[in-house]
Amino acid sequence: MPESPYLVIHPDRVRENFRALDAAVRARGARSRLRYAVKASPVPELITLLDAEGAEFDVASIGEIDLCLGLGVAASKLCYGNPIKKAADIARAHAAGVRRFAFDTEDDLERIAELAPGAEVECRFLASAPQSRTPFGAKFGCTPAEALRLLVRARDLGLAVAGPYFHVGSQQLDPEAWRIGIRQAGAIADALADKDIRVTSVNIGGGLPISYADAAPALSEIAAVVNAAAAEFLPETADLVIEPGRALVGNAGTIHAEVVGVRHAPDGRRWVYLDIGRYNGMAETENEYIAYRFVTDRDGDPVDEAVIAGPTCDGDDVLYQRTRVLLPTTLRAGDRLQILDTGAYTASYSSVSFNGFPPLTVHVSGAERE
């Protein structure tokens, strides 16, 4: 048995998810492009698989660019989608062949124009979408009016204008969010057309949800909203760019973990300590935004509520204490359990060695990989 904890990824599920999403958004008629958000799970086997399926790649750093290029992905398939980047990183990306960049400030735009002349650019604006389960807040995106101004400025700086870009927030549960963002993007595209700038693509970001303990809208429901809004608001000639991460890899992974101990605290609550916590794979439990499902070898025994915590000596390494988690009352140290639908943002969020605990080990189903 491999040393616990570890993550098992099933590539076949990723392939199925990609093809299902691709088919759903192609119903619009115009060309749609799926751009995998590498940060969701930078597992080499998945990047190679998605490259073969025809995906593009949203890369957030020089490290992700080097990873993709090292696996044989063509630089033309990469978009440096992080609006926060150093001038040196823009220059390195351009030298490596990257010709697509996202930005949301004039400073970044001018750096791109100087260090990646002639590149294609997307301007990220902050859409008026409802809050998602794991929101970005105001960290990214300018106003729609500023996006219009900056894209005109991009044209004047000699850059190729792709079009507006928005993101409705990770694990977005309201399909209407995409209609709101697409309507705003369409207004930007119309205003650009009045200035003789033809939008070639509209990037609607990621945020496509999956079901955890709480059900999420079906992909078909969201795709219907996206397709209808795109047909109503976007130019017929503009490609629809979608940047899925969680939707492709979330349900393709399962974490295998072990119970370290069980304790009844002075307040009477039962605490279950696992060998995996906030710092070695479970970062998305912050604020209990994502409620994962647990399976144990003692399922079928009586259950009761439990606080779930990680193994480190950090007081914040608590996964769930407000969320109602029911686990068997017979659970003991040494028992094994599985945490379902953990393919996204687990291995990639894992720390190097906080408290001496190693990063999460990844095994790819059908391959030998540590």
UniProtKB/TrEMBL annotation:
Family listed: Belongs to the Orn/Lys/Arg decarboxylase class-II family.
Cofactor: pyridoxal 5'-phosphate
Name the record gives this protein: Ornithine decarboxylase
Gene Ontology molecular function, alphabetical: ornithine decarboxylase activity
Keywords: Lyase, Pyridoxal phosphate
Domain of life of the native organism: Bacteria
Gene3D superfamilies, alphabetized: Alanine racemase (3.20.20.10), Lyase, Ornithine Decarboxylase, Chain A, domain 1 (2.40.37.10)
Any Gene Ontology biological process: putrescine biosynthetic process from arginine, via ornithine
Domain Orn/DAP/Arg decarboxylase 2 N-terminal: start-end pairs: 14-249
InterPro entries: Ala_racemase/Decarboxylase_C, De-COase2_CS, De-COase2_N, Orn/DAP/Arg_de-COase, Orn_de-COase, PLP-binding_barrel
Residues that bear N6-(pyridoxal phosphate)lysine: K39
One cellular-component annotation, GO: cytoplasm
Active-site residues (renumbered): C313 (proton donor)
Species this chain originates from: Nocardia puris
